[in-house]
Amino acid sequence: MKLVGSKTSPYVRKVRVILAERALPFEFIEESAWTAQTTVPRYNPLNKVPALVMDDGESIYDSRVICEYLDGISGGGLLPADPAARARVRRHEALGDGLADAGITAFLERKREASRQDPTWISRQLDKVKAAVATLETALGSKQYLGGDRPDMADIACACAIFWSEFRMPELGVRQANPRIKAWAERMEARPSFASTRPG
Predict the structure, then answer these.
(1) pLDDT digits over 67-114, tens only?
(2) What is the mean pLDDT of the segment spanning 52-63?
(3) Domain range for residue 108?
(4) Of these four, 117, 121, 151, 158, which has the most CB atoms within 10 Å of its CB?
């Protein structure tokens, strides 16, 4: 398998974490979707990463699709079989992806020249980030992980989003204001799969 993506993308990191957790062999093709010479559309017509290229040359894309596939071929366990439990994990996975979506949108808007930036739009996106963080803090409760005593797909998605926000928007001070997230984040980043996929 080949994974196409950027090391700084939280969505690509989700896939890299699962590949590391399950010791699945793959080749990493580091590629940005933002350059004029990008090759990403060869693998995903939407010009988004990650894309996973199978051994037969077919590619699959969207991090949720890829992550579910990798979980399935490596024994499962990151997504429950029970429909209600699975929906809860998927809901928190969507929370993590949504946090990343809003954060990236605000980050990109801030990169525009000052006269073209929309402060209201940035504020709206940051409100989403703050709401997602507050929801995650509450959802953790007294548990070690969102999934209970071990991490699941939701933990991986949310951790990748939180770590991206700390990398790109440290001024948000997520850990300082949220003790449950702080303790959980430290447990997640201590895992070899997260330590080996740090951006930078």
Answers:
(1) 999 999 999 999 999 999 999 999 999 999 999 999 999 999 999 999
(2) 97
(3) 83-191
(4) 158
Residues 33 and 104 in one domain: no
pLDDT at 147 over 80: yes
Is 14 within 8 Å of 153 (Cβ atoms)?
no
| 197 located within any domain | no
CA distance 62 to 56: 19
- Tokens representing residue 127 in the block: 């409100």
* CB contact at 8 A, 33 and 48: yes
Residue 189 is predicted with a pLDDT of 96
Count, residues in the chain: 200
